[in-house]
Predict the structure.
Amino acid sequence: MKVLLHICCANCAIYPIKNMREEGLEVMGFFYRHNIHPYTECLKRQQALEAYAEQIKLKVIYQEGYDLEGFIQNVVFRESERCNYCYHDRLRSTALLARRGKFDYFSSTLLYSKQQKHELVRSMGESIGKSVGVPFLYRDYRKGWKEGIECSKQIGLYRQQYCGCIYSEKERYYKP
Ligand code: SF4
């Protein structure tokens, strides 16, 4: 069975990929770029993933283009609810790609992060899966949180300090 896994960064991908392979699934990655700001940060995360993917022999599709403007236009005036749009676009893009590539499932490394709204990711993934016609592979990868961090430190992966968008960067560093 083939699964297309949306990857937000190499660190969050370690445990889900290991787990999926142990389950006997054939995994391919999809790196979505529009929500990672600024562009230089997006490149750092992509380069870290490229290096890690080579190490573990993972094929990855890297999204073309960099639609920062589109991302901002879609969340402006409702910045506090921006994650809804962000999750939805990342999951839907992955599901559509999975349908085109005839994958059996799609999934997301968002299911690994303790910082994300896990139940929302799950319900959105399942509903997008139904509408697109490719099932969402749900697993609670948060159980591998510690293991993933330890492994990423051990191999010296680049570890980002904020979720991705420019708003999350401000929340991380701006302390009035
Ligand atoms: S905080 Fe993270 S999940 Fe929320 S909109 Fe920004 S990048 Fe997306």
Notes: The chain is about 50% helix and 10% strand. The helical segments are 10-22, 39-56, 68-75, 82-100, 118-132, 145-154, 166-173.
